[in-house]
Here is the input.
Amino acid sequence: AQKVTQAQTEISVVEKEDVTLDCVYETRDTTYYLFWYKQPPSGELVFLIRRNSFDEQNEISGRYSWNFQKSTSSFNFTITASQVVDSAVYFCALSEGVKAAGNKLTFGGGTRVLVKP
Amino acid sequence: DTGVSQDPRHKITKRGQNVTFRCDPISEHNRLYWYRQTLGQGPEFLTYFQNEAQLEKSRLLSDRFSAERPKGSFSTLEIQRTEQGDSAMYLCASSYLAGGGGDTQYFGPGTRLTVL
Here is the structure.
C-alpha cells in the first residue's frame, strides 16, 4: 500500500524567510508520480507540480523549488523569500502509475505554513 | 478553459436526510475523481470514473453513497440517510489521459457538508 508522510504539521516564518516542507513516501511500484498541491484558506486545492519516478531532476519555478531523492523516498518543497500570500496548507501526494483503474492520489496530512509580515 | 465547478458550495442537512452534490469537470477531461476531506486531514479517495464508467470505489464508500457520471460529463454524488460522520468537504477533480502514464488532477472548490 502507498503512504505519504508530512511530519511537519505547522511551520511559522517571517516574511522573506525560506521555508522547506518535507515529504516522505512509500510505494512498491517502480513507476509512480509525486505531486504538491496548495490549499489556501478559500479551500480549493491548487496544483503546483508533478514529478515522475524516473525523473530525478530538481525543479525550480520562480520562488518554488523541489528536491526529489529516490534514495531516501523524499520529495521536499522549498519556498524562497516567503510572502504572506504563501500562507496555506500544502499537501504532498502520490499516485501509482500504469493503472487501468485510474491514478487515485494518496495525500499526506498536510503542512500548514503561516507567513507573518 | 473554465475550471472544475461544484454545486452547492455549502450544504447543511439534518441527520437522516439525503443529499446530492454535482461536479462539472473541465471540458474534454475524460477522468473524474471524488475525494473527501475532514478537518485537519488530507483528502481521501472515494471513487473514480473514466468517461461514464465507474472503475474504482474506495472501501470508504459505504452503500449509502452512490456516484454517477451519465454520458461521461458531469457527475453526481448522493449520500442517503446522512450521519454526523459524513460531515466533511467533498472534493471533485478531473483530468485528461489519452494513454498510459499518469494524469494531473485539477480540483474544484469543494462542497462542504454539515450534518446536524
Q: What stands out?
A: Chain A touches chain B at residues 4, 32-33, 35, 37, 42-47, 50, 52, 91, 93, 95, 97-98, 100-110 (CB under 8 Å). The longest strand of chain A covers residues 88-96. Chain A has a mean pLDDT of 93.
